[in-house]
Amino acid sequence: MQTPDYQRLDRAHHLHPFTDFKALGEEGSRIIERGEGVYIIDSEGNRILDGMAGLWCVNLGYGREELVEAAAAQMRQLPYYNNFFKTTHPPAVKLAETLCRLAPGHLNRVFFTGSGSEANDTVLRMVRRYWALKGQPEKQWVIGRENAYHGSTVAGLSLGGMAPMHAQGGPLVPKIAHVRQPWWFGEGRSEGQDPEAFGRDCAAALEAKILELGEENVAAFIAEPVQGAGGAIIPPASYWPAVKAVLAKYDILLVADEVICGFGRLGEWFGSVHYGLEPDLMPIAKGLSSGYLPIGGVLVGDRVADTLIEEGGEFFHGFTYSGHPTCAAVALKNLELMEAEGVVERVRDDLGPYLAQRWQALGAHPLVGEARSLGLIGALELIDPATGERFDESLAVGNLCRDLCFASGLVMRSVGDTMIISPPLVITHAEIDELVDKARAALDATLARLADTLTE
Ligand code: PMP
């Protein structure tokens, strides 16, 4: 089949996630056929640097034979069996042990799921169950953040704070509230605050919400250490210590959504380690298997696990694919490779600092109001060079820049007018140079296109 054949069949039969079906039908999809290292190759033979590691997940890059072998060997041995009804299998047991060894010391248990969304559904069930078992069944409210992403299931989208998703979601899961996000460039800057004062204000907003709802009614606070889908939002240094202090003052669980930040993205095994958080629960997915097969889970701290185990009786929750043996075998091999190759340390000590230095330089581009990065996650905030302010939304400058990027051989994603990257963790210095050069070229092309539009 040729590209137009795929596009025709795609248009006729395939409803894509997070897509305007009609608009895509008119434009046609890009057909990605192969992956090699940090590159994807489309059906026209174009080689594109994948600056997003798929959807923040292909941490070891494409084409790792060891992962293919791990899947094939496990499928020959036992392609599927479940962990319900008093059974388990070696891959699930070994993966659970490895994860708990890599996670901070108080996280000694894991509940497996098929995805990050299912992990957050599990979180909601677990925190409410925990407080019920503690004799405080009224502690049901969960506080999340505006513009956070925690998944696309009904619980995931309710915990998340994506306004367009809420608008389509029908009645959301009750007793979930949201507080402001620590996005200084988008919100603090326009209020004329310095970043650190803004970070503390965001933590104060959490405290105010706890007091409004009543501490005795609040079960948990959920947040990504660095917001990913919201726009690679790296909070001001003051934010997490202030949030930790608020949570310590009240008896409220902390859930750190590590679906993006986990497995080396921020230069530690978990984002919580980078920020010194001590979360009670950590949902994980994506980088757990480098995206080669779908698997997620929730790492559970002793405080919650001990109660669920000692006092809980049966927990009526689980998925057919919880701890799927083939997915677990691939995840285990992925973690073994990451350890053996020192991937996490390299992000922390070498690649992260190198990207930061190259990426910061883009901050001098006339279209860029802020360039930020941490580990191997980064963002550029686009601004109108004439005013230093945001462009009018109707110009969709971020999308224009994204499309120009793709056309020139780089996947960089746009969230409004925030451009974001999250490349595979095995990227080399030369490939970082290529990424930054292509990003700069796309910024130049965007500026040129805007000049044409604005003078027309
Ligand atoms: N949490 C976070 C922080 C995520 O970024 C995502 C996915 N982008 C999810 C949860 C949901 O994961 P999934 O798409 O695997 O359901």
From TrEMBL:
Pfam family membership, one: Aminotran_3
Protein's organism: Halomonas shengliensis
Keywords associated with the record: Aminotransferase, Pyridoxal phosphate, Transferase
Protein name from the UniProt record: Putrescine aminotransferase
Cellular component, GO, one term: cytosol
Family indicated by similarity: Belongs to the class-III pyridoxal-phosphate-dependent aminotransferase family.
GO molecular function: pyridoxal phosphate binding; transaminase activity
Entries under InterPro entries matching the protein: Aminotrans_3 (IPR005814), Aminotrans_3_PPA_site (IPR049704), PyrdxlP-dep_Trfase (IPR015424), PyrdxlP-dep_Trfase_major (IPR015421), PyrdxlP-dep_Trfase_small (IPR015422)
Positions of transmembrane segments: none
Keyword check for Transferase: yes
Cofactors: pyridoxal 5'-phosphate
